[in-house]
Amino acid sequence: MRILFVTTSYPPDSVGGVELHVEGLTRAMTAAGHACHVFARAGSAEVPHLQLLHDQVGGVPVTRMGNTFEDATTFQRLYAHEGIADVFAAELKRIAPDVVHVHHLTCLSVECLERVRAAGIPLVMTLHDFWMGCPRGQRITAGLDLCPEIRIDKCVPCLRELWPHVLGRGRAEHAPPEERDAGDRALIEEYHGAIRQALGAVDQLVTPSDFMRRMFEGYGLEPGSVQVVENGLPVARWRQALAEVDRDGARRDPGSPLRVGFIGSVLPSKGVHLPLEAFRLLGDPSGLRLDVYGEVLPFHHDRTYGDRLEQLRRGHEASITLHGVYRNEDLPRLLAGLDVVVVPSLWYEAYGLTIREAWLAGAVVVTADHGAMAEAVEDGVTGLLFEAGDARSLAACLRRLLDDPALRERLAGRTEWVRDEEAAASELLGVYDRLLGRPGPGREPGGSSPGA
Q1: Average pLDDT over residues 207-217
Q2: Is residue 452 part of a domain?
Q3: Cα(first)–Cα(last) distance of the chain, in Å?
């Protein structure tokens, strides 16, 4: 089978959760004898607008397309760009895949979905976040206000703040406020209509969690139209990396203070301030240490978060360390040095990659009780849940773990809690076979696949 994966970025340009997931699928499916190709936006501004760069990653052909946004002069062109779709359609014809699997379209164009449909090629799309329906991707405003439902009156000021050059005054500088408001509302309603229409062009929508399935059904998708396929991780590679950590003697020392950690992008929406606030509430006990690994990134127009974290750390420098950026290849070693991993996201995580990585490393997971995080962790069985956004609730969980070594031992992660990427790839291959009308294991042509 020839499979084309479409995503916003791909290693080595970026090594985020979606990129690593797609790379893992190409690795597992290639090993199973299938031919994989990747189409992604080029991560370098040196690739001219709408020009292509061809390379290979791990033996998989990758087409990268430049998008400098130099012609993104209207709101519509930020999500539906005909020129990008034309370039993609030409590559689609050249590659001639049996099936197309889209993972993310930010910095690309939702019109790519219709081009696949027009070519008569079976189309699968995994909804890894809320970008299809929320241009910010996570249903949270710059002021950290969650959006459990889509409301146009809330979208207007939020998207004006995100793209002031194509909405509000940027779109109609001299128009009266009420005219600008009506115009922006119309544009955003048109956007939601276009997104729902684009989703309707997909043969099979997939999400990595039941939480995401419910959220998209709430957005208007037909119940039962979205299939949950949990992502997988390279479990064997993790075991090998952790074995090397053990040989190097870099594992956590059972006799040392309890090591609590956060690892990932350091953003306000990730709630990184919460473990620091929890440590302050605990009075900086001598038996605890907090390590924060990750680069402090700008959150829209806010570049002050790093300074705010340093202020929270003040007076607790001996027990709280902000390590900064880390390399992805160092992740097993860093996690192996932690007893507890805190995943305190304020926004709705769609899957919870860090939770699984912490389990692979044998750490205890403490996470917020909403989104797919609450779906992944069974409180008191595979980790602890605290009230989202509440530092006191988090502090109470950390106190329990500090005072109860038996609880820590019982909640320590294990590899059997984590799905392997080969299992995820196998389930997706079953989806592709069904769309192509091919019989799969235990299934006749035309029959339904599990979870469909």
Answers
A1: 97
A2: no
A3: 21
287, 157: one domain: no
Q: What is the crossing angle of helices 111-118 and 82-95, to 10°?
A: 40
**Tell me, what DSSP letter sits at residue 16?**
S
* pLDDT of 301: 78
Structure-token pair, residue 17: 């959760």
Q: Which position has the token pair 């760009």? A: 81
Q: Which domain holds residue 122?
A: 2-232+421-436
Question: Are 138 and 173 in the same domain?
Answer: yes
**Number of CB atoms found within 10 A of residue 385's CB:** 19
pLDDT level of residue 300 (50, 70, 90 thresholds):
confident
* Whether residue 308 is found in the same domain as residue 409: yes
For the chain, the domain total comes to: 2
Identify whether residues 91 and 216 lie together within a single domain.
Answer: yes
293 φ/ψ sector (left φ>0, alpha ψ -120 to 50, else beta):
beta
CATH number of the structural domain spanning residue 264: 3.40.50.2000
Is 444 within the bounds of a domain? no
Helix intervals (H) in 201-234: 210-218
Angle between helices 273-281 and 391-403 (to 10 degrees): 60
Give yes or no: residues 364 and 241 share one domain. Answer: yes
Whether pLDDT at 433 is above 60: yes
* 162 shares its domain with 277: no
| Domain shared by 224 and 255, yes or no | no
Strands (E), 198-325: 204-207, 226-228, 258-263, 288-293, 320-324
Is the model's pLDDT at 59 over the cut of 90? yes
Q: What is the C-alpha to C-alpha distance for residues 12 and 51, in angstroms, rounded to an integer?
A: 19
Q: Is 113 part of a structural domain of the chain?
A: yes
Q: Which residues contact 58 (CB under 8 A, 6 or more apart)?
A: 23, 26, 27, 30
Q: Are 321 and 427 members of one domain?
A: no
Q: What's the chain's average pLDDT?
A: 93
258 within a domain of the structure (yes/no):
yes
* Alpha carbon of residue 427 to chain centroid: 20
CB 91 within 8 A of CB 115: no
Residue 35 has pLDDT above 90, yes or no: yes
The SS3 of residue 399 is helix
- Give the span between the Cα atoms of 227 and 449, in whole angstroms: 10
The span from the CA of 22 to the CA of 385, in Å, is 29
Q: Are strands 60-65 and 52-57 parallel, antiparallel or unpaired?
A: antiparallel
Residue 448, pLDDT above cutoff 90: no
3-class DSSP state of 362: coil
